[in-house]
Amino acid sequence: MKTYTAKLVLVAALAWMFRACYKDVGPVEPELETDTEVSFSNDVQPIFNAYCIACHPSSGNLDLREGRSYSQLVNVPASGYPAIRVVPGDPEASVLYKKIDGSGAYGANMPTGGQLPSTDVQKIRLWIEQGAKNN
Ligand code: HEC
User: Fold this and answer.
1) How far is the CA of 64 from the centre of ligand 1 (A)?
2) How remote is the CA of residue 34 from the centroid of ligand 1, in Å?
3) Total of domains in the chain
């Protein structure tokens, strides 16, 4: 009886240990280096091209097509919200960022009905943090 209890304790302990081991295993979210300089034309615009321009020549009075997007975003008041689309240096105050971060702070998350890959969300966040340059 004694050894049975000991075995039970051992099995329970092992199970707990393996549970602890496997806890960290899962899909690894790629992280961007925060000192990487994000380029508007090479990093941000391609995200708009892939996910946004189907609706955003005009939806929300926002044109995200190449050559027009920058001047529609930085320091420009949103058309549907009493806030600025992109405040250089401040993603949390930027409607563009709050529309893609899953917060729902300004109505529907973008792209409508979906969620950008986390690396793309990070790129846009970094671009804003780095001053939202037209680079
Ligand atoms: C299926 C269509 C659709 C897609 C795709 C889409 N949007 Fe939108 N978007 C809308 C509509 C409709 C509105 C207006 C209603 C609202 O504010 O949610 C809007 C509003 C916005 C606004 C607020 C504009 C303002 O000044 O009020 C932003 C910012 C925005 N979208 C960004 C994006 C970004 C970035 C993407 C791509 C990642 C994207 N959208 C993809 C339909 C879309």
Assistant:
1) 9
2) 26
3) 1
Within a domain: residue 8? no
Ligand 1, residue 80: give the atom nearest the CA.
27
Residue of 48, 70, 110 to mutate, ligand 1, most atoms within 8 A of C-beta: 110
Q: 3-state class of 84 per DSSP? A: strand
- Each residue's pLDDT expressed in tens, for the chain with a length of 135 residues: 567 777 777 666 656 665 655 555 555 666 778 788 999 999 999 999 999 999 999 999 999 999 999 999 999 999 999 999 999 999 999 999 999 999 999 999 999 999 999 999 999 999 999 999 999
Q: Which two tokens stand for residue 22?
A: 């496997």
**Domain range spanning residue 121?**
40-129
User: Looking at the domain assignment, is residue 121 inside a domain?
Assistant: yes
Q: Which residues line ligand 1 (CB under 6 A)?
A: 51-52, 54-56, 59-60, 62, 78-81, 85, 95-96, 99-100, 107-108, 110-112, 116
Q: What predicted TM-score, i.e. pTM, was given to this entire model? A: 0.83
Is residue 117 a part of any domain in this protein? Answer: yes
Establish if 34 belongs to a structural domain. Answer: no
Q: Bridge partners of 74?
A: 86
Cβ atoms 79, 59 nearer than 8 A: no
Task: Report the alpha-carbon distance of residue 106 to residue 114 in Å, rounded.
Answer: 15
